[in-house]
Design goal:
about 475 residues; mainly alpha; 2 domains
Length: about 475
């Protein structure tokens, strides 16, 4: 069940019919959230509900015992980490580990296909497993460090863990931020309802109009279906994927935030126009903010961050980025993607790019976009070999048949629209544009934007695609 489907529209309509009845009492409110979230998740494969329940029970019990068993708290936490990360390893990384071992054995002259030895159930990737695992871990880690007290009611805990708007693709909500919200309810006022509606409509626009219309062009290129080639062609493909993954993932986050706001709850911003960043560090403060801050607080800072000298700072940074790459997927391509960002971040830190970028913001924004776009090639490619070939095409001047523009014009027009929108936002933030709001009040302007988005969704939506980040 995806947000841009008839099934979800009916599901959401039924939920909000029941919500005013159930929200007034804690147990009934939490029960409705849990049952609805399990139905939402079980729509893909009900069998993997047992995995969420298992992960949740482990951390609920762990959280209960941590304050009471101070002598064994480290061991209790280790058991929780082993259970959560163990299930993640089985379902998400079995094939990758088997591939690495097979390659290592092959290098030593031993031919053995370990992938064939993996049980069939472990070959299926549960939707959103990385998201709810990290969300569950934040609960036990915060209790362990004394930042949070455990909840007594198990429905309260599972309402936090399985909250359906962000269950399968984030944002990753922290227990210390959201459990308190769930302990009460509030009825959103008219302004909040309007803001929630804007988030949902803009999110659907990003997903259905921008991301889905670009997918055919990008998939045909990486799938080897396209008849075109050349440097310019692959630069357009690479840039299109940069826009697609942003529109797709940011769109999901906006919809999730909008649905939560209609319920009376608040999710923090997950994307803040990352492509207007003038440094890679700034990019990571704007891209997938909930995951970036999760790794910062639970990996980078515990490893010492930048407090233990330059060398250890580089080790902490590279380790954090490597884990981020592995979190995204079990493939060498994600490791290279993370390694590229590590190199970019280290270079910025020790060359002092942040100071220089302030003098020439547009130039460095362009440079950062190119860096990120090249790295995205490894994120999107099916293999390292394919990614290397594409990057080679980007930097070797090969002629391009410009007929690809006409052939994919119906798709590429939405790339142009996305660039116009982001450019407007960039110059607006730099206060270099004359705003229409000088002549039209903000509410009228918002209404016009909404009307345009709705019309585009109705008449120019692309072929429905699953959200990219469902695979993580």
């Amino acid at each position: 069940m995806v947000f841009n489907s008839i099934e979800f529209l009916l599901f959401c309509g039924l939920f909000f019919l029941l919500w005013p009845i159930f929200r007034t009492r804690n147990n009934s409110r939490w029960l409705l959230i849990v049952v609805s979230s399990f139905i939402f998740y079980g729509w893909w494969d009900w069998r993997f509900l047992f995995l969420i329940i298992f992960s949740g029970l482990i951390d609920y019990i762990t959280g209960w015992f941590l304050p009471k068993k101070q002598r064994y708290k480290k061991f209790i936490l280790q058991c929780s980490l082993a259970a959560n990360l163990g299930s993640l390893a089985v379902f998400k990384y079995s094939v990758f580990f088997a591939t690495v071992l097979t390659d290592a054995l092959s290098f030593g002259g031993v031919e053995l296909n370990l992938i064939e030895k993996i049980p069939e159930f472990a070959l299926i990737l549960p939707v959103g497993i990385s998201f709810y695992t990290f969300q569950s871990l934040s609960y036990t880690l915060d209790i362990y460090h004394g930042r949070l007290k455990p909840v007594r009611n198990i429905l309260h805990f599972f309402a936090y863990l399985a909250m359906f708007p962000q269950l399968v693709a984030g944002p990753i909500v922290r227990a210390k931020d959201f459990l308190k919200q769930l302990s009460s309810y509030r009825i959103p006022n008219s302004i909040e309802v309007w803001n929630a509606t804007k988030l949902i409509v803009f999110g659907l626009f990003q997903k259905m109009v921008i991301a889905d219309n670009l997918s055919l062009f990008i998939d045909s290129a990486y799938g080897g279906i396209s008849l075109f080639d050349g440097t310019l062609y692959w630069w357009v493909v690479a840039v299109a994927f940069s826009i697609q993954i942003y529109a797709d993932f940011s769109g999901y986050s906006l919809i999730a935030r909008g649905i939560a706001k209609l319920m009376g709850y608040h999710f923090k911003m997950n994307f803040n126009h990352p492509y207007i960043s003038a440094t890679i560090k700034e990019f990571w403060s704007r891209w997938h903010i909930s995951l970036s801050t999760w790794f910062r607080d639970y990996v980078y800072i515990p490893l010492g961050g930048s407090r233990q000298g330059a060398l250890m700072g580089m080790v902490a940074l590279c380790s954090t980025m490597l884990l981020s790459g592995i979190w995204h997927g079990a493939n060498y391509t994600f490791i290279i993607w993370a390694s590229l960002h590590s190199v970019f971040l280290i270079a910025e830190r020790y060359v002092g790019i942040s100071k220089i970028s302030k003098k020439y913001p547009l130039l460095f924004t362009t440079i950062v976009f190119i860096q990120v776009t090249v790295a995205w090639v490894y994120f999107r490619a099916e293999s390292v070999q394919q990614a290397n070939t594409v990057v080679g095409n980007l930097f070797t001047l090969k002629s391009t048949d410009l007929a690809f523009i006409n052939y994919y014009f119906n798709n590429l027009i939405f790339l142009f629209i996305a660039f116009v929108i982001e450019s407007f936002i960039y110059f607006k933030k730099k206060r270099k544009t004359v705003l229409i709001r000088l002549f039209i009040n903000q509410s009228t302007l918002d209404s016009l934007k909404m009307a345009c988005c709705i019309l585009l969704i109705l008449f120019f939506r692309g072929e429905g695609k699953q959200f990219i980040y469902f695979q993580f």
